[in-house]
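Morning. Coffee machine broken again, so started the prediction first thing and wrote up yesterday's gels while waiting. Chain of 171 residues, entered below exactly as on the submission form.
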Amino acid sequence: METVVMNYFKKLIQTLTKEKDVLESILKLENEKYEILRNVDIKGLMEINSQEEGLLEMIDTVEKKRKEIIFYLCKEYNLDRNLSLKEIVSILKEEIGEEIEKEISSLRENIKNVSENLKAAVRENEALIKSNLEIISLTLNLTGKHSFYETYNHKSKGDSFSKVHIVNSLA
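Came back before lunch.
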Protein backbone atom coordinates (compact mmCIF):
# COMPACT_ATOMS: atom_id res chain seq x y z
CA MET A 1 0.00 0.00 0.00
CA GLU A 2 1.25 3.44 -0.94
CA THR A 3 2.00 5.82 1.92
CA VAL A 4 0.78 9.41 2.03
CA VAL A 5 4.32 10.73 1.60
CA MET A 6 4.86 8.55 -1.48
CA ASN A 7 1.62 9.84 -2.97
CA TYR A 8 2.78 13.44 -2.46
CA PHE A 9 6.18 12.72 -3.97
CA LYS A 10 4.71 10.96 -7.00
CA LYS A 11 2.52 14.01 -7.63
CA LEU A 12 5.56 16.21 -7.08
CA ILE A 13 7.59 14.21 -9.61
CA GLN A 14 4.80 14.56 -12.17
CA THR A 15 4.63 18.30 -11.52
CA LEU A 16 8.40 18.80 -11.68
CA THR A 17 8.55 16.79 -14.91
CA LYS A 18 5.84 19.01 -16.40
CA GLU A 19 7.70 22.12 -15.21
CA LYS A 20 10.94 20.90 -16.81
CA ASP A 21 9.16 20.12 -20.08
CA VAL A 22 7.51 23.55 -20.23
CA LEU A 23 10.79 25.30 -19.41
CA GLU A 24 12.51 23.34 -22.18
CA SER A 25 9.79 24.44 -24.60
CA ILE A 26 10.26 28.07 -23.57
CA LEU A 27 14.04 27.70 -24.00
CA LYS A 28 13.53 26.29 -27.49
CA LEU A 29 11.33 29.27 -28.38
CA GLU A 30 13.87 31.72 -26.96
CA ASN A 31 16.56 30.14 -29.14
CA GLU A 32 14.28 30.40 -32.18
CA LYS A 33 13.51 33.99 -31.20
CA TYR A 34 17.22 34.86 -31.47
CA GLU A 35 17.26 33.97 -35.17
CA ILE A 36 13.97 35.78 -35.71
CA LEU A 37 15.37 38.90 -34.04
CA ARG A 38 18.54 38.68 -36.12
CA ASN A 39 16.43 38.56 -39.26
CA VAL A 40 14.04 41.27 -37.98
CA ASP A 41 11.05 39.03 -38.72
CA ILE A 42 8.19 40.86 -37.01
CA LYS A 43 5.54 38.30 -37.98
CA GLY A 44 7.70 35.46 -36.68
CA LEU A 45 8.38 37.38 -33.48
CA MET A 46 4.67 37.88 -32.88
CA GLU A 47 4.03 34.15 -33.40
CA ILE A 48 6.81 33.19 -30.97
CA ASN A 49 5.58 35.69 -28.38
CA SER A 50 2.08 34.26 -28.65
CA GLN A 51 3.38 30.73 -28.10
CA GLU A 52 5.52 31.89 -25.18
CA GLU A 53 2.54 33.58 -23.57
CA GLY A 54 0.68 30.27 -23.46
CA LEU A 55 3.70 28.47 -22.04
CA LEU A 56 4.23 31.14 -19.39
CA GLU A 57 0.62 30.74 -18.28
CA MET A 58 1.20 27.00 -18.14
CA ILE A 59 4.35 27.42 -16.04
CA ASP A 60 2.40 29.60 -13.60
CA THR A 61 -0.19 26.84 -13.21
CA VAL A 62 2.47 24.17 -12.73
CA GLU A 63 4.34 26.36 -10.23
CA LYS A 64 1.14 26.85 -8.19
CA LYS A 65 0.56 23.08 -8.22
CA ARG A 66 4.14 22.43 -7.04
CA LYS A 67 3.77 24.94 -4.19
CA GLU A 68 0.42 23.41 -3.22
CA ILE A 69 1.89 19.89 -3.05
CA ILE A 70 4.81 21.11 -0.94
CA PHE A 71 2.42 23.06 1.31
CA TYR A 72 0.29 19.97 2.02
CA LEU A 73 3.36 17.78 2.38
CA CYS A 74 4.80 20.17 4.98
CA LYS A 75 1.43 20.39 6.73
CA GLU A 76 1.06 16.59 6.82
CA TYR A 77 4.54 16.08 8.29
CA ASN A 78 4.60 19.26 10.39
CA LEU A 79 7.57 20.69 8.49
CA ASP A 80 8.52 24.35 8.12
CA ARG A 81 6.93 25.66 4.91
CA ASN A 82 10.06 27.67 4.17
CA LEU A 83 12.21 24.58 3.74
CA SER A 84 13.65 24.00 0.31
CA LEU A 85 12.69 20.93 -1.67
CA LYS A 86 16.19 19.57 -1.11
CA GLU A 87 15.76 19.94 2.66
CA ILE A 88 12.32 18.29 2.61
CA VAL A 89 13.68 15.34 0.62
CA SER A 90 16.58 15.03 3.05
CA ILE A 91 14.24 14.98 6.06
CA LEU A 92 11.87 12.42 4.50
CA LYS A 93 14.43 10.34 2.58
CA GLU A 94 13.96 7.22 4.73
CA GLU A 95 10.24 7.23 3.95
CA ILE A 96 10.56 7.92 0.24
CA GLY A 97 13.52 5.71 -0.57
CA GLU A 98 16.64 6.23 -2.63
CA GLU A 99 14.94 5.92 -6.03
CA ILE A 100 12.49 8.78 -5.40
CA GLU A 101 15.26 10.85 -3.79
CA LYS A 102 17.46 10.45 -6.88
CA GLU A 103 14.59 11.20 -9.24
CA ILE A 104 13.67 14.40 -7.38
CA SER A 105 17.32 15.42 -7.24
CA SER A 106 17.76 14.77 -10.95
CA LEU A 107 14.64 16.77 -11.82
CA ARG A 108 15.80 19.66 -9.61
CA GLU A 109 19.19 19.74 -11.36
CA ASN A 110 17.57 19.54 -14.81
CA ILE A 111 15.19 22.39 -13.97
CA LYS A 112 18.09 24.43 -12.59
CA ASN A 113 20.17 23.87 -15.74
CA VAL A 114 17.30 24.65 -18.10
CA SER A 115 16.48 27.79 -16.08
CA GLU A 116 20.10 28.98 -16.29
CA ASN A 117 20.17 28.34 -20.05
CA LEU A 118 16.85 30.16 -20.37
CA LYS A 119 18.19 33.18 -18.48
CA ALA A 120 21.24 33.26 -20.77
CA ALA A 121 19.05 33.04 -23.90
CA VAL A 122 16.81 35.84 -22.63
CA ARG A 123 19.88 38.02 -21.93
CA GLU A 124 21.17 37.38 -25.47
CA ASN A 125 17.80 38.27 -26.96
CA GLU A 126 17.58 41.41 -24.83
CA ALA A 127 21.04 42.47 -26.02
CA LEU A 128 20.03 41.88 -29.63
CA ILE A 129 16.81 43.86 -29.15
CA LYS A 130 18.76 46.70 -27.53
CA SER A 131 21.24 46.69 -30.39
CA ASN A 132 18.42 46.77 -32.98
CA LEU A 133 16.72 49.62 -31.11
CA GLU A 134 19.96 51.61 -31.06
CA ILE A 135 20.36 51.14 -34.81
CA ILE A 136 16.76 52.20 -35.42
CA SER A 137 17.17 55.21 -33.14
CA LEU A 138 20.38 56.24 -34.88
CA THR A 139 18.75 55.84 -38.27
CA LEU A 140 15.74 57.92 -37.23
CA ASN A 141 17.98 60.61 -35.78
CA LEU A 142 20.08 60.78 -38.94
CA THR A 143 17.07 60.97 -41.24
CA GLY A 144 15.46 63.57 -39.01
CA LYS A 145 18.51 65.85 -39.16
CA HIS A 146 19.03 65.63 -42.91
CA SER A 147 15.74 65.27 -44.65
CA PHE A 148 15.89 64.80 -48.40
CA TYR A 149 13.23 67.45 -48.90
CA GLU A 150 15.34 70.18 -47.29
CA THR A 151 18.53 69.09 -49.04
CA TYR A 152 17.11 68.98 -52.54
CA ASN A 153 14.52 71.76 -52.42
CA HIS A 154 16.37 74.89 -53.69
CA LYS A 155 13.54 77.18 -52.65
CA SER A 156 13.76 76.08 -49.03
CA LYS A 157 15.25 78.52 -46.57
CA GLY A 158 17.61 77.62 -43.78
CA ASP A 159 20.88 75.82 -43.26
CA SER A 160 20.14 73.13 -45.85
CA PHE A 161 19.62 75.76 -48.53
CA SER A 162 23.00 77.36 -47.90
CA LYS A 163 24.70 73.93 -48.03
CA VAL A 164 23.07 73.19 -51.39
CA HIS A 165 24.01 76.66 -52.62
CA ILE A 166 27.67 76.10 -51.67
CA VAL A 167 27.69 72.70 -53.38
CA ASN A 168 26.09 74.20 -56.52
CA SER A 169 28.69 77.01 -56.66
CA LEU A 170 31.54 74.52 -56.39
CA ALA A 171 30.11 72.43 -59.22
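The chain is about 85% helix and 0% strand. Going to sketch it on the whiteboard this afternoon.
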